[in-house]
Please model this.
Amino acid sequence: MSTRQKKLKRGLVCMNLFLIIILFAFTFSWAAGEKYPQRNIEMIISFPPGGPVDLMTRILAKYMEKEFKVPVIPVNKPGGGGSLGAGIVASSPPDGHTLSIMVPSSIIMPVLRKEVNFLIEDFKPIGQVANPPPVLFITYPDSPWKTFKDFIDYAKKNPGIKCGHPPITTVNALKFMFINKYENLKLVGVPFKTDPEILVAILGKHIPVATISSVAIKGPVEAGKVRVLFSFNPISETGIKIDPPPPDFESFFGKKPPFDFGFYLWCNSKTPNEVVEILKRTIEKIVKSPEYDNDLRKIGYSANYTDGEIFMKNEFPQIVNLVREGLKEAGLIK
Amino acid sequence: MDIFSGLLSGFQIVFKPENFLYCFIGVFIGTLIGVLPGIGPSGAMAMLLPTTFGLSPASSIIMLAGIFYGAQYGGSTTSILVNIPGEASSIVTCLDGYQMAKQGRAGPALGIAAFGSLIGGTISIIGLMFLALPLAEIAVAFGPPEYFSLISLTMVLSIYLSQGSLFKSFIMIIVGLILSTVGMDLVSGKTRFTFGCGTLIDGIGLVPVAMGLFGVSEVLVNLEESLERVIFKAKIKNLLPNREDWKKSIGPIARGTFLGFPLGILPGGGAIIASFVSYSLEKKISKTPERFGNGAIEGVAGPETANNAAAGGSFIPLLALGIPPNVVMALLMGALIIHGITPGPLMIQQHPEVFWGVVASMYIGNVMLLLLNLPLIGLWVKLLKVPYRILMPLILLFCLIGSYSLNNNVVEVIIMIIFGIAGYVLRKLEFEAAPLMVAFILGPILENSWRQSLVISSGSFFVFLEKPISLGALLLAFFIIVNALVKYYRKKKKRLIFE
Model:
């Protein structure tokens, strides 16, 4: 055999070895594909640190870490009013390692406003992880309105009462808009950037009434600095004790709130079904555990599980219509 | 419980070994992140929040609060050494602090910043103890009309910040205001000037702009210098402020304290406003205002004291009313809530150990910070001896990493680079960045409070004159403008006569 042939042969052997290794690697990853998770799980938080979604994600991540036995890393990606984080989930590799807790409107709103290059179809809900953000309707303690009925009667006779609310594109502001429209209250909205600013405006009597998240005002309510006239969700869900309890939407208007949805855990819609199933089983187990609910109650929220598929079938289309209606009402889409 | 027994019990809590340790860890981490530009206290606190779940409420709040005021200490370091504000409230410190460093006086600048911070911080804790409840009521008196007038006053004051031509600084203010309109409009919810870029929906980030205008442009300007030239003179006179420095600084420190503390109580950028107002005040009352911008130690002492005093003040709305006045306080509120403590008017009675523990820890923490920072001054000053060809790329690298790590967003890096180039061009044309920065920071508050006021008053402009605080601020602003015009006119007249 000439040296040239020897070299060729050695080259061939090397190549074969290389092929075998690649083949092995393939079968290995094939087998591992059944297993989830394969690496760290990233939880995208579409808001800056410190907010309710941030705290909620960190709590869920703590429980997921225990179940999956891999690091579950919360990553803050604020921007675009929450749409930046949603975009990251939409464009992530569809293997279930990039997840995010979002309310459905965070996905629907930017899509309807044509501000983003993802579609509603790019997302799949794994399941609900928390009840809707509890929202209260408040006034200052020595205001003339003792009950919500007093206020509504007054407001109908005296149009143009100023009512503080969070930025127009948030769920809480949409709640205000709907109640204002359907009950024909003719309130004039005063938008504030954050809940603390709304609270200052109420405490200083700069505005008479406001819509505000219950989480922001637990302390002032308990100290009697703020009077709660109305609670969109049952007051028991907020963790605030008020005697007598203020009316909630269902008890006051005798119907289900038209605009209400909880927090869901979402993944990329192309994620394989086996992975989604594993996630579903684990998330259901966590959300239904009393410890998780207890932790959520500490930050003013409460746990509630609904299967993602059932939610998509039964409630989601209606929510899309409501968000569209709300955006039209605000003059943001045609 | 009266104040002294409360404070005594607070010290008992802090001197437990584990709390003492957490206090030290807090201020140490705070100093580190204050020195590193980009990573702010809110980011660090969020990352450490889960680790505090297992601690007692008092320990975890002591540590998290330590990060916050520790970062206020550290924030001035990069402003002075390399002209990059580590924190928004240290932007003014760049103006004179960096000039001092260039003249080989980085040591006294760092020293006076540390001592000023200690004094401002400590006095504001005393204020926090005695005045928490009555002062909280004042914070609530500030509604949209009051904010509008206060911000107008600050803007007028900030014109005094400018060194050069009044006309040029007006232009910079207008540019700053225009830049601040980018993003989602609060009232209508429509997006303005975003050009389809998602990041811009929330407006242009403050820190990338500041890093670009101050830090990157500095690097670019230095590129023009030849390699041999050493700007930071090797001969460093002394590390600590001398008697002359102290004599000049004691007034600014006193005024900074009493200015910063009440301004810190106001929700929304209290510490930033305090530092700007302090600087313009010092310049206004100085007998030699031309020294400002060329390394006047008063220009470091005043603002650095004011922002630390404001940091103490900003605890008041949270602890007394349950209102977090800034992002960091919102995080602290989250931490309290997780531990089952509701911040608000009842907190001091329900959880005295947390309130007094935190107050006492702040006394200890401030002293720890001084002990931690004084020996470091020598080290920081040595850093300036690093050759330019190494230091400048390092600064650029820090800016790049810092602007990315803010929100893990590449677009913010691009924004920083754009503003770096813009800052370079502005410098060449002798436009100053400071008025632009003031207008850019205060623009959104000005616009929102203006529109909120008019919605509340159903469109009547008298709303700004009916409220006493608002009327007072507007009158003061008016007086300053008239005063400036009269002075300008006299100067011109004098010059005409002279000619």
In short: DSSP finds 21 helices and two strands in chain B. The mean pLDDT of chain B is 84. The CA atoms of residues 283 and 289 of chain B lie 5 Å apart.
